[in-house]
Design brief:
By secondary structure, the protein is an all-alpha fold. The protein has helices at about 20-35, 45-55, 60-75, 80-90, 95-105, 110-125, 130-140, 145-160, 165-175, 180-195, 195-210, 210-219; strands at about 5, 10. It folds into two domains: about 20-135, Tetratricopeptide repeat domain (Serine Threonine Protein Phosphatase 5, Tetratricopeptide repeat, Alpha Horseshoe); about 150-219, Serine Threonine Protein Phosphatase 5, Tetratricopeptide repeat (Alpha Horseshoe), CATH 1.25.40. It is built from twelve helices and two strands, in the order E-E-H-H-H-H-H-H-H-H-H-H-H-H. A two-stranded antiparallel ribbon has the order 1-2. Strand 1 (about 5) and strand 2 (about 10) form a beta hairpin. Helix 6 packs antiparallel against helix 7 and helix 9 runs antiparallel to helix 10.
């Protein structure tokens, strides 16, 4: 897993965010809506392993070249567009990355990682926080047991002023891991914004009982 930025944990690490192209962003979503086929694709494990290894080493130009060739040779491979999107985002080509992710989802819209990466891209890079939160919500329909996803969605909702939803998401994360520091912090912030001192107090008391190593991981 990659480092967090803006409360979101990225599957693939992005470069510094830039200025979005709003017209391309609209076009990218149109691709998903019109080309969406909702069918799984047959992915070659060797290609996925190779692309993942390049990502882990941060060899983004190599990932880009590999994914471009892969998507050209196998245009029905959702994973080819996923890695293309990751490489484009990491090299600062954000609008193109969005288009690639939507192409991946048009082929397979049940991939948690694609929705997660798209959520991060929209929220932090393309200045579309509401769309970003919506995409992460869709990802969590696929993996409702992902505690970090719920904590990240709590953070997103809090940043866009949806404090009731932030509190609900934080509590979903805590139902999966009562000692999750990030979720308790999001819970406390949301409760404070909603003027619910009893929940703030409960979160503070819960944090006092969290094992020290949990705080080290959160930091």
């Amino acid at each position: 897993m990659m480092p967090k930025a803006g409360g979101i944990e990225f599957i693939c690490r992005p470069a510094a965010w830039g200025v979005p192209d709003k017209k391309l962003s609209i076009f990218a979503r149109r691709i998903y809506k019109t080309a969406h086929m909702n069918r799984p694709t047959t992915t070659e494990p060797g290609k996925v392993a190779h692309a993942r290894a390049l990502c882990e080493r941060g060899q983004w130009p190599d990932v880009l070249g590999f994914a471009e060739k892969w998507s050209t040779e196998s245009p029905d491979e959702a994973k080819a567009y996923f890695y293309l999107g990751a490489a484009l985002a990491a090299t600062g080509r954000y609008a193109e990355a969005e288009t690639a992710y939507y192409r991946a989802l048009a082929l397979d819209d049940n991939d948690f990682k694609t929705w997660n990466n798209l959520a991060a891209l929209l929220f932090d890079a393309l200045n579309q926080p509401v769309e970003g939160a919506k995409c992460l919500g869709r990802a969590l329909q696929i993996e409702p047991g992902n505690k970090l996803g719920w904590a990240n969605l709590a953070s997103m909702n809090g940043q866009i002023g949806r404090h009731a939803q932030a509190l609900e998401c934080a509590e979903r994360a805590l139902a999966l891991d009562p000692h999750m520091v990030e979720a308790q912090l999001h819970r406390a912030r949301a409760a404070q914004a909603l003027h619910k001192p009893e929940i703030v107090r409960a979160a503070s008391e819960a944090l006092a009982k969290v094992p020290p190593e949990k705080f080290q991981r959160a930091g």
